[in-house]
TrEMBL record:
It holds the Pfam family PLAC8. InterPro entries: PLAC_motif_containing. Residues 1-54 are annotated as: Disordered. Residues 1-19 have a biased composition (Basic and acidic residues). PANTHER family: DUF614 FAMILY PROTEIN-RELATED. This is Cell number regulator 8. NCBIfam families: A_thal_Cys_rich (TIGR01571).
Length: 241
């Protein structure tokens, strides 16, 4: 009799455990392979597409929305021949003098600051000088050198994310934005405007680029590493007793 009573109590305990609400909440269904095949496949969410600049930078502001990055302004205008009245005033006067008298030297220094590679100054300065003399000898004005030098303006604009002539004109009048569909077309239009600026206002363009680079990039000659000078110990003499 005692054994039967113990079995009955054990069965009642099992019934209480099965009827527990905690166990009822953890019920899971076991699916077979056929059910898994019939289940609908949910595709992953598509990634958002963002525009890209010509030099490989995404047109995003670090957000998920993908807002375009605002362009920076040039430190001085195209026709600001004497620059600005700041700590670079003397440098701006030097740039204006070089652009008027020796544009080949100014272009060479701009390329040297932009590239910072050995031989950059001589390669660009000599090539510019040859095109300068050929253009003045055959056509009477410097018409060949801008074909060679306008690429530096595009490189400066991309390096410092500066506002181009096309974007500035579109911002002022709003008449050119409808013909641009993506970032690559905008970059092509900006490159064309850089070329036109060098052809029509060549000296002013070189001076503006020189003022911009001297405010943002140190000359490679000033990037000298600090040296440690070790002095020999002074001679020591032993005193005589």
């Amino acid at each position: 009799m005692a054994g039967e009573d113990n079995n009955r109590e054990a069965r009642r305990g099992d019934d209480r455990e099965e009827s527990s609400p905690l166990l009822q909440g953890n019920d899971t269904k076991i699916y077979s392979k056929e059910d898994a095949k019939k289940a609908p496949i949910v595709p992953p969410p598509a990634a958002e597409e963002h525009g890209w600049t010509a030099d490989g930078l995404p047109v995003t502001d670090g957000s998920v929305i993908g807002e375009p990055i605002g362009r920076n302004q040039w430190n001085s205008g195209l026709f600001s021949c004497f620059g600005r009245n700041d700590e670079f005033c003397s440098s701006d006067l030097e740039v204006c003098l070089l652009g008027s008298v020796a544009p080949c030297v100014l272009y060479g220094t701009n390329a040297e600051r932009l590239g910072s590679a050995p031989g950059t100054f001589s390669n660009h300065c000599l090539t510019y000088s040859g095109l300068y003399f050929i253009g003045n000898s055959l056509f009477g004005w410097n018409c060949l050198a801008p074909w060679f030098s306008y690429s530096s303006r595009s490189a400066i604009r991309r390096k410092f994310n500066l506002e181009g002539s096309f974007e500035a004109m579109n911002r002022s009048c709003g008449c050119c934005g409808s013909c641009i569909e993506d970032e690559m077309q905008r970059e092509h239009m900006e490159t064309t405007c850089d070329f036109v600026t060098h052809v029509l206002c060549h000296t002013c363009a070189l001076c503006q680029e020189g003022r911009e680079l001297r405010r943002k990039v140190l000359h490679p000659g000033f990037n000298a590493q600090s040296t440690v000078v070790v002095l020999p110990p002074s001679e020591q003499t032993m005193g005589r007793k």
